[in-house]
Amino acid sequence: MAKKILIIDDDPDVVMAIRMPLESAGYEVQDAHSQDSGLAAVEDFKPDLIILDVMMDTHTAGFQLAQKLHGPAAKEEHKAIPIVMVTAVHQTTPLRFGPDDDYLPVEGFIDKPIDPKTLLGEIEKLLK
Amino acid sequence: MVVNGGSMATDSTQDSTHTRGLQPTFEELCQNTQLLIQLRWVAGLGILFATLFTRYGLAIELRTLPLLLIGLLVLSYNSILFFACREEDKSLPRIQRVAWGQVILDWLAMIALVHFTGGITSPTLIYFVIHAALSGTILLPWQTRRLILLAIVIVGGLAWLERAGTLPHVTISDLGLAEDLYKNTTYIFAVMAFFGSTVFVLSELVTRNAQRLRQREQHIRELYEARSTFVRVATHELRAPLGAALSLMRNIEQGYAGELSPQQAGILSRVTSRLEGLSTLVDDLLTLARIREASTAHAPLKPDSVRTNLDKIIEQERPHAEQKQITLHCDLDHAPGIVMAGNVGLNIIFGNLINNAIKYTPEGGDVTIDYTVLREQGQARVSVTDTGIGIPADDLPNVFSEFFRAKNAKRAQITGTGIGLSTVYALVQRYNGEITLESVEGQGTTIIVTLPLTPHQTPAKSADDEM
């Protein structure tokens, strides 16, 4: 059965750019455009992996959602779903972080602009 | 989590602006206090010297002992102030206390000096003018006004007590003044009127000018903050559509949206390359805005580790090197190499150097990063060497200029804006470091950055202890 991937990003063009390579690689893809709808989709769609944007309705919506899904108070079933964070912040703000930093509980990062090959490589690695 | 912005705590000062005036900033108080301490060494020694010279050189009758004691007292409380200023605790309330303390001590010493050199008839009375001006530079207007009022009351009181005989009057007969001048009420009132008005007017002028300067400084600070906020917001807004457009382009280029004719592919590749150029420009502008922000006076330098920053950047740049089959050779000292730097300064410096080295090195080349702690010189030294396109000799003098790009880089159509190296140069200068660049066109470039280590870095400490 195809693995399920949920994209949470409020930019429809970015969603499209992520969706294309994922679908052609055979993943089942769904998208959500805000923190709340994203959280609802995690419950309904039960994805195997989440691709999450940092800046949505607020500059830190992605961080907050990552905390809700993987933070100390999160449900065990949510903690098991790997999160890949899509961000341009990674390169250019004073907030430097890598997946090892425990205050940002995500499994991987992918930089904008998104390179389809890199994206697929990262996802394959996490879904192994 | 909030991106560290420029909005500094100006609220508290703003409140008091309208009612009581702008507080001198910490830096201003420190500078003025240190200046006063230097002046006071001269003043204390001056009292000792002038007393001895007047007494024994000019053979004028003086109350030598009390005057020498005042001189010594000034020198001794100045020593205490000197050490109080050097203490670790450099907080604003503390330096404010030191500032107040020294003003009070100076005024007491001054009044004693006036008393022992003839009270209301003393030629030293004129020195109060200096004190009035000085207190205007370090205290708030209302504080200065009260202090001046207090000085007038004390000097007037001193004159009155001497006149009434409650305090013994010291007469310096060699001055040739009338013996009972100090008892002359008209004289006392005349001196007090001119003395009082002079110190009052002078201190008003000084405090008002100091206030105006402070207001201007605050205004400039606010402008800076507004500007960097604007640039930050604008750049984010610019980056989002660029990121989305480039992401879609990559999908087309990699064939996820179907086959393209060679002509279509050619056009799209041109579009992509223009978008990439724009994206680099936006990134560099954001970096520049951050540096401007970080280099304003109220963003003090903090200890940061060279090693930690290098590790992060190498980790981050490795994929870019791998994409171009460039081998990264890293020879890194274990010591953390703590230097004083701005918020993300080290990250920007080494990030730019390593990123440039990879960018300007053709496929299959080498980039060598060497980090050494030179303990004896107290420096951290980082060199980045590449086997890239190098820089033409006649372009070398300009490499650190803003927006400058070498001819061969433009010819090779490598995207760049010429902000990177000028930024690195400005930051290294700000951190009291040095940067040198050697390059041979077609062979490669070596850039060496040395930064002064903070004192007390015990050589025995391993990197892991501190990271």
Report, as a whole number of angstroms, the end-to-end distance of chain B: 22 Å
- Listing every helix as H and every strand as E from the N terminus to the C terminus, the arrangement of chain A reads EHEHEHHEHEH
Domain count of chain A: the total is: 1
Shape of chain B: elongated
Strand content of chain B: 5-15%
Count of domains of chain B: 2
Rg for CA atoms of chain B: 33 Å
Features:
heterodimer; A: 128 residues; alpha/beta; Rossmann fold; five-stranded parallel beta sheet; globular; B: 467 residues; alpha+beta; Heat Shock Protein 90; 2 domains; five-stranded mixed beta sheet; two-stranded antiparallel ribbon; 60% helix; elongated; disordered N terminus; disordered C terminus
Descriptive notes:
The complex is a heterodimer of chains A (128) and B (467). Chain A is an alpha/beta fold and 128 residues long. In chain A, α1 (12-24) packs across α6. Chain A is built from six helices and five strands. Mean pLDDT of chain A is 83; it is low at 89-102. In chain A, 44% of the residues are buried. Chain B has helices spanning 11-20, 26-57, 64-86, 92-116, 128-138, 141-164, 185-253, 262-294, 306-323, 345-359, 407-411, 420-430, 463-466, and strands at residues 302-305, 327-332, 338-341, 366-374, 379-386, 434-440, 444-452. Chain B has two domains: 11-224, no CATH class; 301-467, Histidine kinase-like ATPase, C-terminal domain (Heat Shock Protein 90). In chain B, α2 (26-57) packs antiparallel against α3 (64-86) and α7 (185-253) packs antiparallel against α8 (262-294). Chain B is elongated, with a radius of gyration of 33 Å. The two termini of chain B are 22 Å apart. At the A-B interface, α1 and α6 of A face α7, α8 and α9 of B.
Brief account:
The complex is a heterodimer of chains A (128) and B (467). Chain A has 128 residues and is an alpha/beta fold.
Secondary structure blueprint with pairings:
The complex is a heterodimer of chains A (128) and B (467).
Chain A: E1 4-8, H1 12-24, E2 28-32, H2 35-45, E3 49-53, H3 61-70, H4 76-79, E4 83-87, H5 89-92, E5 108-111, H6 116-127
Parallel strand pairs in A: 1-2, 1-3, 3-4, 4-5
Helix pairs in contact in A: 1-6
Chain B: H1 11-20, H2 26-57, H3 64-86, H4 92-116, H5 128-138, H6 141-164, H7 185-253, H8 262-294, E1 302-305, H9 306-323, E2 327-332, E3 338-341, H10 345-359, E4 366-374, E5 379-386, H11 407-411, H12 420-430, E6 434-440, E7 444-452, H13 463-466
Helix pairs in contact in B: 2-3, 2-4, 3-4, 4-5, 5-7, 6-7, 7-8, 9-10, 10-12
